[in-house]
Specification:
The complex is a heterodimer of chains A (965) and B (94). Helices cover 72% and strands 3% of the residues of chain A. By secondary structure, chain A is mainly α. The two termini of chain A are 54 Å apart. Chain B has 94 residues and is an all-alpha fold. In chain B, α1 packs antiparallel against α2 and α2 runs antiparallel to α3. The longest helix of chain B is centred in the first third of the chain and has 29 residues. Classes of the chains: A mainly alpha (965), B mainly alpha (94). At the A-B interface, α27, α28, α29, α34 and α36 of A face α1, α2 and α3 of B. Chain A: Keywords: Antiport, Cell membrane, Ion transport, Membrane, Transmembrane, Transmembrane helix, Transport.
Chain lengths: 965, 94
């Protein structure tokens, strides 16, 4: 037999493994996907059922794995009766939904994505059910929100699906964050995040000063997930999802996670007035409102969505009533609702599939086309309405009995039976409307002539409806033992004795059921006469209290007041805040506490700085209207910086600065070609307010610049700390890093992980630039061939003795030869820089840049087409190669038992050259080289390709992709 | 005046002259009038800068300066030629 560790781990891991496999199958493999998903679900079911003996003994099965031992967190899987029942529900409904989805999804839909998400969702749900650690539970909780987002937005070409997915994610994920905070508070109170220890600390928690914050935060999490008022609005919009998703996530499982958590933590958090009022009133409002609004929906899925809201409200209300029997009823109704609502959703899916519409007003008389489906849906709808002999009736009667019982004698408590009966009437009315309007009446003209679906598509509904019936008729033989197991694990020794019989005699709850049924029929009769489109009730229902809309409207208004889309304003705020933040720490302190003696001024060097400053200022002044002049002046400022670095003995920086300077120059020139010319007519004259603004901006800029200068001066003249970080690196560079160039050793060894992060960012930037340029549309005025080029070409055309392009070739003859000859020279130089980088100025970054310059030079000399006929640079492959090298170096250290990216020195015996000291960081540095080379060339070539692309075909955006690939 | 002082003085003078050359190039960069003037001024600026770094090298005897000068000599012209190509054809890479 398997150990419980293996079983539990398999339960949680199998769906994720299945999801991974599912994502790798071909796009149209509907059958393979369904087999895989159903097989996974069955395996999980089997491993869960193997736990039955332990569950029947009311044991708690735990297995613990180390997760973050340093933080005292372990990965705990814990199954008790309640979690077990919930896991069975998740897997069972999952299995049926997977089977159904096989037939529901059309051949055009990319199914691997769908099934992979569904399976991963199932795994996350099981994670919630089986978590024995609260932090871990929150993790899986957020995962379900995430997969729900992906599944609602599965048809991402549909705007309403995207909007629905966004709203669902916003609401449930922010609820999840609140839950996280609440759980941390709870763990703080209880002294542990372990569920068993938290459950044992109920009295401590309820008596603690932080009880209320913890309760409110956790309730926000649970109520958002279960779509309870006022967070209910996301659920109806989530109906844009494919129907299997609605059946699985938004009726049977995910929305139950909230009530699951409420029931789970009820022994700890419940039993106070706060609990009763918050949970009870949220449940009550949702219960009544959902049922009321469901009557007025015309979309079948909306009817079901609002009905789901109402039933979830009922469960929440039961949990809020804070009595053991109510909790029993809540758990029972969780199971019942999952069965009939999932089958109804699937039934609606079939109707939608077969007729092409879900609009109740258009559907009619479907019974004659779909007799079997219709019968099944009618039984399920009757269960939803609470008709006797069906499972919905049993839990609803338990609910009625609970509403009659007195809890705290408040007004709410007294009104409860009446309100409950009223809402039950509504639910009878919408169920009746669903049955009568869709299946009976004259046959309607429909987009498609409906016929019965394949048998296996109907099979899940058949099975669920049979469950509804069997549970409704012989509850004690079927659901009884399971319910006992679940209730015992939640309530422990306080578990009440309950009786699931169908007939309790002529009691008050039964009378309430009868009144609800009769009242529901009457309500439906009134509804039919009442004009649904213009009646005030309908208008009220239409103008439903959509908190989501209100919130976004307010958010937009606040954003309009406080935010801005203007770059100038944003920058102004940013700089001002930075300025204030920079000055704040100085309050009460001197900026220059102890100053070092200043070096005497070297007049030549000072002049270089003045030149640099003049260049920088002139760049700023010219940037607006004379971009080329600004660019040239910027080159001047760059060289001044470069000389400064050399003078102050930072050759590494100087080298990098120079190369970056060169690449930037080419890059901006490439971009300049596509920027429309900016005319300064009229812009120079400005009224007084504009002038005022400019002076304010100027003073802000001066203040910020002076501040930065002061800070740099303070840092540079500060007394050197005796045991500062500089000495630390200088001492250890050779002994531990094996290199004499401290800068390089820091980059590739001491701070190698940072470098890895930085080159990743570089790759992301390069890829984004590449992706953006693929869709680049130049301004119309810069589309034409540049004037000078046109003149030169025209000259060739006008003279019969000249070939086209000859003038240009003549002009560039000498430079191009030199530039071509320089390719191997610069290449060798790059290799030299790279190899010596560990001991002398150089390294992968500058080597990569120099290599990129060598390549760019060829493009400049001979043009894109010529170069790409001779050498093909594959920037993307270089980048991939670089990553492979960098990660492989890191992992190699791992494999021999050291932390990631630990360096190692070894001596290689090379023929002819002799013994060479090689550090493993050389390979890492090569990775950096390849990434820098790839990223730089990718951006530059993508820009350069704009020319041939636009000249060949003005509207074809794919040339870059073909060229660079 | 021995060789040492002579070298010192000539280095100081050379330094000053190189910096002045840079200053004059910058004036040309600022005043133009045509874009070609500015590009040539930038090139002259680079050459003068390279010379300045060489004098630093002679002063200290540190090879790093010569290497830096070498890099400017090898790659400094790329920016100039890109600018020149831009002026001649309207685009840097075609």
């Amino acid at each position: 037999m398997f150990s419980s560790d293996t079983l539990l781990l398999a339960t949680i891991a199998l769906p994720f493994v299945g999801s991974l496999v599912a994502s790798l199958l071909p796009t149209n493999a509907r059958n393979a996907e369904a087999w895989l998903a159903c097989g996974t679900a069955l395996c999980v079911l089997v491993s869960l059922s193997l736990l039955y003996p332990a569950m029947a003994d009311e044991q708690i099965v735990r297995s613990e794995f180390e997760w973050i031992p340093s933080a005292g967190l372990s990965f705990v899987l814990r199954v008790d009766g309640f979690a077990w029942i919930f896991a069975l529900l998740i897997t069972g409904v999952g299995f049926l939904v997977f089977l159904y989805a096989r037939y529901y999804m059309s051949p055009e839909d990319p199914v691997p994505r769908f099934f992979a998400f569904l399976l991963a969702f199932m795994g996350s749900m099981l994670g919630i059910a089986l978590s024995g650690n609260l932090i871990q539970l929150v993790f899986f909780w957020e995962l379900t929100s995430f997969f729900s987002f992906l599944l609602i937005g599965y048809w991402h070409h549909d705007a309403s699906a995207r909007a629905g997915a966004r709203i669902a994610l916003t609401v449930t994920a922010s609820g999840g964050l609140c839950l996280f905070a609440g759980v941390i508070v709870l763990g703080h109170i209880a002294g542990s995040y372990d569920l068993d220890r938290v459950l044992a600390a109920g009295d401590v928690i309820r008596g603690h000063a932080l009880y209320l914050p913890a309760l409110v935060l956790i309730l926000i999490g649970a109520l958002t997930k279960s779509a309870q008022f006022p967070f209910h609005f996301w659920l109806p919009r989530a109906m844009a999802a494919p129907t299997p998703v609605s059946a699985y996530l938004h009726s049977a499982t995910m929305v139950k996670a909230g009530v699951f958590l409420l029931a789970r933590l009820w022994p700890v958090l419940g039993g106070t007035d706060y609990w009763l009022y918050i949970v009870g009133s949220a449940g009550l409002v949702t219960f009544v409102m959902g049922a009321f609004l469901a009557m007025f929906q015309n979309d079948l899925k909306s009817v079901l969505a609002y009905s789901t809201l109402s039933h979830l409200g009922l469960i929440t209300l039961l949990l809020g009533l804070d009595s053991p029997l109510a909790t029993v009823a809540a758990i029972f109704h969780m199971l019942n609702h999952a069965t009939f609502k999932a089958s109804l959703f699937m039934g609606v899916g079939i109707i939608d599939h077969e007729t092409g519409t879900r609009d109740i007003r258009r559907l009619s008389g479907l019974y004659r086309f779909l007799p079997v489906t219709a019968t099944l849906a009618m039984v399920a709808a009757a269960a939803m309405a609470g008709v006797p002999l069906l499972n919905g009736f049993l839990s609803k009667e338990m609910f009625f009995a609970e509403t009659i019982a007195t809890h705290n004698g408040s007004l709410l408590d007294d009104a409860l039976p009446y309100v409950a009966t009223l809402a039950a009437m509504f639910s009878v009315a919408y169920s009746l409307r669903f049955i009568r309007d869709v299946f009976f009446g004259p046959p309607a003209t429909l987009p498609r002539t409906p016929k019965e679906p394949p048998h296996w598509m109907r099979f899940p509904i058949e099975l669920l409806v049979v469950v509804c019936l069997v549970v409704g008729i012989v509850p004690n033989l079927t659901i009884g033992p399971f319910l006992n197991i679940a209730v015992a694990s939640v309530l422990g020794p306080n578990a009440p004795v309950f009786d699931l019989a169908v007939w309790h005699g002529f009691t008050l709850p039964f009378l309430m059921s009868i009144i609800a049924l009769a009242g529901g029929v009457a309500t439906y009769a009134v509804l039919r006469v009442y004009n649904l489109d213009t009646g005030p009730l309908f208008v009220l229902a239409k103008s439903r209290l959509s908190v989501g809309d209100t919130v976004s409207a307010w958010a937009r208004r606040i954003l309009g007041l406080l935010g801005t889309q203007r770059l100038q304003t944003q920058l102004r705020i940013l700089v001002c805040v930075a300025l204030v933040a920079g000055f704040l720490p100085l309050v009460g302190h001197k900026l220059l506490p102890e100053t070092m003696e200043l070096t005497p001024i070297d007049p030549a060097f000072a002049l270089v700085w003045i030149i640099g400053i003049v260049c920088a200022l002139a760049t700023a002044q010219q940037a607006k209207f004379h971009r080329l002049a600004a660019l040239i002046l910027m080159g001047g400022a760059g060289l001044a910086t470069c000389i400064t670095f050399i003078y102050l003995s930072a050759p590494d920086l100087a080298l990098t600065q120079l190369l970056v300077e060169v690449v930037t120059m080419v890059l901006i020139l490439l971009g300049l070609r596509w920027l429309p010319k900016r005319l300064d007519e009229g812009l120079r004259q400005a009224d007084s307010s504009t002038l005022m603004r400019r002076y304010v901006d100027l003073s802000i800029a001066l203040a910020a610049g002076a501040g930065l200068a002061a800070v740099s001066f303070a840092v540079l003249t500060r007394q050197v700390l005796p045991d500062g970080i500089a000495d630390h690196f200088l001492e250890r560079s050779y002994t531990e890093g094996g290199g004499r160039n401290v800068v390089n050793v820091i980059l590739v060894d001491f701070r190698g992980f940072d470098t890895l992060g930085e080159v990743s960012v570089l790759c992301i930037v390069a890829l984004s630039v590449f992706a953006l340029l693929r869709r680049f549309r130049p301004a119309p005025e810069s589309l034409s061939v540049p004037e000078r080029k046109r003149v030169q070409e025209a000259f060739d055309v006008d003279h019969p003795d000249r070939q086209p392009g000859e003038t240009f070739a003549d002009y560039l003859l000498v430079p191009s030869v030199i530039m071509r000859l320089l390719f191997p020279v610069i290449g060798t130089f790059a290799i030299y820089l790279f190899l010596r980088g560990h001991d002398f100025p150089g390294g992968g970054f500058v080597a990569g840049l120099s290599m990129a310059i060598a390549i760019i030079l060829q493009y400049m000399a001979m043009g894109t087409v010529w170069v790409e006929h001779r050498i093909r640079v594959y920037p993307l492959r270089w980048m991939a190669l670089g990553f492979a090298f960098a990660f492989a170096t890191g992992i190699a250290a791992w494999l021999v038992g050291y932390p990631f990216l630990t360096s190692h020195m070894f001596i290689a015996h090379l023929p002819i050259i002799g013994d060479v000291h090689i550090s493993s960081t050389l390979f890492f540095d090569f990775g950096v080289l390849a990434i820098v080379l790839g990223a730089t060339v990718l951006i530059l070539i993508a820009l350069a390709h704009q020319t041939i692309r636009t000249h060949r075909k003005p509207s074809m955006p794919s040339a870059v992709a073909d060229g660079v690939g | 005046m021995n060789a040492q002082t002579f070298l010192l003085w000539s280095l100081a003078l050379a330094e000053l002259l190189f910096v002045m050359a840079m200053a004059f190039s910058v004036i040309r960069m600022l005043r133009g009038p045509s874009a070609q003037n500015r590009v040539l001024a930038l090139d002259a600026f680079y050459v003068a800068g390279m010379g300045l770094i060489l004098t630093f090298g002679i002063q200290t005897g540190d090879t790093v300066y010569f290497e830096a000068a070498l890099v400017i000599a090898l790659l400094g012209f790329v920016g100039t030629s890109a600018l020149a190509k831009f002026l001649m054809r309207g685009e840097t890479i075609e």
